[in-house]
Amino acid sequence: MAFSNPLLLIGLAAILVPIIIHLFNFRRYKTIYFSNVKMLEEIKKKTKREQTLQQLIVLTLRVLGIAALALAFAQPYIPSGKQKNRTGNLVTIFLDNSHSMEANSKEGKTLYDAVDAAKNIVNAFGFNDDFVLTTHDFTGEQTHILNKDQILEMLDKVQASPNSHTLAEVLAFEKNTCANSQKGNVVHYYLSDFQKNNFNIALLDADSAASTFLIPLPTEAANNVGIDSCWFLSPVFKVGNQVTYFVRIHNYGKEEVNKVPVKLYINDKQKAVASPDIPAGTYVDCRMVYNIEEPGTQCGRVAIEDAPITFDDQLFFTYEVTDNTRIAAIHGKDRNRFLDALYGRDSVFNYLPMAYTQVNYTQLKQCEVIVLSDVPTISSGLADELTKFVKGGGTLLVFPPKEMDNTYNRLLSSLGAASYGALAKKELKCGQINTESQYFKGALESQREKLDMPVTLQHYEIQGGNGGEVVMALEDGSPLLAVYPVERGKVILSAVGMDDVYGNPHRHALFFVPLHNIGIMSAMQNKLYNTIGKDRMQTVASRTGSSDEVLTLRSRGHKEEFIPEQRRIGNETALYFHDQVKEGGLFDIVNGGAVTGTLAFNQDRKESDLDCYDADELTKMAKASGKEIDVIAADTKNIAKSVADKLNGKPLWPYFIIFALLCLLAEIALLRFWGKPTINNERNSEQTT
Length: 689
Fold this sequence. Notes:
- The protein contains 14 helices and 34 strands.
- It is α/β, with parallel strands linked by helices and 689 residues long.
- The strands form 8 sheets. Strands 15-14-16-17-24-23-22-19-20 form a 9-stranded mixed β-sheet. The chain has a 5-stranded parallel β-sheet with strand order 4-3-5-6-33, sandwiched between helices.
- The chain has 5 domains: 2-74 and 652-688, no CATH class; 89-211 and 611-648, Rossmann fold (3-Layer(aba) Sandwich); 225-322, Immunoglobulin-like; 325-521, Rossmann fold (3-Layer(aba) Sandwich), CATH 3.40.50.880; 531-596.
- Helix content is 26%, strand content 28%.
């Protein structure tokens, strides 16, 4: 047994008072006259023995009562073994302020209950202890050791956060901060709703020198319905086209919800409505169809109405609708009339032919596709520019010349694509078409035997290139048209050139299908939206081609504005926004005061699932883990007492208070009732005689 206030044990000296009173017995004796003294000697002996015994018992009760009171004020307890030394405490508090903590509780909001509980924990410690506060915000203030006043002030500022870090990330952040303290006793407190999809007790520190406490914050049962994700059936967007949009609505609750109103807005105009029924614990993919009416950046938003969790009731997204795809065709001595017919006469494409001796590099940087056709040699300057173009996200389509030098394979080798081999002068038909390729899918009927296949008179062998996709193959299995991914872009190699010496592929409609789709697919949307906390970078097309341009991200409504880290990659600019985005919504890309595009950001949906561990489940998990982990019920009225009890051990002072009261009651009963029945009985006996 130990004492919290051992100095108060000096109160035990008070037991001398009843002892002194008993020894000197200051009471005066009274003379009583009896008319009959026949049995006086016997009564006197009996009364004296009883009085002595009574006084000893009363003395004992008084001594024990005073001693129990003195011990109670010294606050005795049975040590738990948690505190290893007396150098002070380092108290770390993780307060979960993610969106799931906005759920309703019996007292109001779960987050507010957590803040109150954290304050009670702090108040259970002294001003000489060190404190560390960690939330999902990971702010600079949370990297410092705090005193009692500072942490109480910070707790008053805690608000719900769009960030949601994993437990491993929280523990790593907390550990780095704790390294700055020299206190000997480390005590960890984790206040959270402990969502099952984001908590793993095995990750908690197994250090026996530290004490770990889990404080679950119970929430009232709620049927949360949230928007999970969205996508388009087709990745290509053109004005006048009808597009099919899908949005996944998830019912995380345990009850079915009916007729959930789902509304789709494009550029703040309502385009479609749905009202699905969603069974408990499942999701429904809503299909919405609408027409694209205008080019440029399209800002979309799909919304539902659901309470009390509202952060997942909206999903923002953006996509680009271009008037045409910019295609640059670098040719040899003469322009290729077949490419002119394919790309130059179609309004879908902005066709820019240029001779290999007069390449406009500024225009190349603004294109989505570059075509090399019958170029006799590739200069080092052009090769460098093409390498940057492809790695930055562009598409390079290569048609070999009649006579090829080694500059082609040197370029392809630097890109990590396949290379050209020998010229095979033999007649072959196209033997296989990859109808599952995005460049053919949906364009052909299933009866392949009825197709008139193109015929080659000669072709270049395409060698190597691991990871490539063969779109069309010859009868001997060698590629006729193949696609090779290179970082963000792709290289598409043709085994034949756009000339009659290679046969009729360049005149064949079947060969034109993938070539046409290559131009269209190069303008597809890469990313509809970014998830806060997960996606930290997105590339955007460079509008000016200048390496000195500085882009700014500004939220709609001008609530947030910042300059992200940016790097120029080929004809694109990579924007690294890290943790700068705090709220979901639409952010305009501003360059020199002009808006050049828009990015969409949404909250992480892992907070939508409100299925959490309760105190009993956590207790069982803690016992099964074999670690020194305790669970404290989050009753904010008694949390300070629970903290002290768990940290210091089992308190004994209430038992001493009860024992002192029992001693007092026993003394009163003894003085009130001892001997009176005997005296009354003797008087009655004398009267009878």
